[in-house]
């Protein structure tokens, strides 16, 4: 794939970190655990549940590398390039709030809009009147297998599939937004529409998955299997010579009982942990990000005292002693000028 | 009209947003005079230090963004309350003891709150009249409001009963109840939502419908992980095509007929 490699890349990290060889690897100062992402979840009335492990804890190396994240040298030029590939006018309007946008066939049923972020080059493209259209009848959506083929061919054709996206049928996930009419008294569903099918591509840096708002790639297919939207919030990374001492998974699991980084539904008596994995963090597409740390991402299902299912919970736990590095380490003025040919 | 000034003069003394206090008071007065004016109520709580819940600096930032975006749009009367000045009573139905939504969330056209939530509830930090606002206490639209957003975790989690309870009580000619089935990260949700709702006189990518702006990868979903589920509850299906006043078409008010709509979408 040539989309990124054809661009001049700018490493958003100190040159000295990136260019040093592995033999001169340094260990970040131990003892400092990074802050974790915060959920808007009330803990009033939430008591620490009984945790059940429905999965095995991951085998974690003693050290993991700090990742240097990078985006194109000129995200604005790349967004223009994307607009051209998608058949839109490449004269992007800047809204003064870190976003650029262009629109084509305005006022018609085929109106399309591309909105991008000049910090990262992340973008959202859609047919305005076809993505999330309010249906009168069930749209004709392709089955998952077919949807994967259509979506992947579309990304490849337009040069929009990043190298580090996992574009294999058994690795992608599928989602269908659901619109339902319900009777309030009984809760009965009267009619329901799957309004699109989305093919979602995971990302991996080294051997680890990537999570966070800056790691989203999905293609939405609407009626007749037409592509009606693409969301690509993405940045790439490579390991630096800075090694971070890991927190053993067993220790992170013990710390979970403190509960400070968990989002737990009220009334949760038993929390069944279904996923406990290491992942690197990719910050919001509207932010510049210099480096990335790994963290533990925990997900599962909650059950009340009476056995009622309460839905999912999730949380994060520190996975490394990070020294001065933070989860969302943004570049300083002097740091983000290191050019390197890709 | 003077009752507005008297009732809220004590709150304005403690307002943390400083310069915004006069705006809030001026708008409160303006809002009482006519439903025709376009009115925004924006409230947030960052400081949860007296609660077991964490502080939310992102709520402060994103509510700033939303408030300013409506200011840029022009023509909007704007009211803003923050932290200890953001009260449950502003959202609680004035048909219930201690509720005063008719002067606040139901007196605006677009009402927004950012803070902590959980399944079927929103957490406030002062006893005005309480700290927990629940799914049975909202009743909007009987005065003015078209759209209410709770930018809080799991408030509209689709357990079946929860969404139905919000609908049965809350939608009384309200068009849309907007929020989250899952738990949003404390990022820029409201500001990006508003940015996609509003197009300032020239094309800047805004002017979306409510649902398009909330579901947008460059709107309500910008700072969220993939897979975080949003929820919008409606009285009738056509309300999902509502734009903000001044940005496009808006459906007519509809009475609660006992059957509602819900639309879930993953960021």
From TrEMBL, chain B:
On whether Oxidoreductase is a keyword of this UniProt record, the answer is: no
* Domain of life, source organism: Bacteria
Residues covered by region (Disordered): 248-267
The protein's name: DUF6345 domain-containing protein
- UniProt lineage: Bacteria, Pseudomonadati, Pseudomonadota, Gammaproteobacteria, Oceanospirillales
Question: Compositional bias (Polar residues) at which positions?
Answer: 251-267
This chain's source organism reads Allohahella marinimesophila
Statement: the UniProt record of this protein carries the keyword Cell membrane: no
- Keyword terms of this UniProt record: Signal
Q: Which Pfam families match?
A: DUF6345 (PF19872)
The signal peptide here is 1-36
Entries under InterPro entries matching the protein: DUF6345
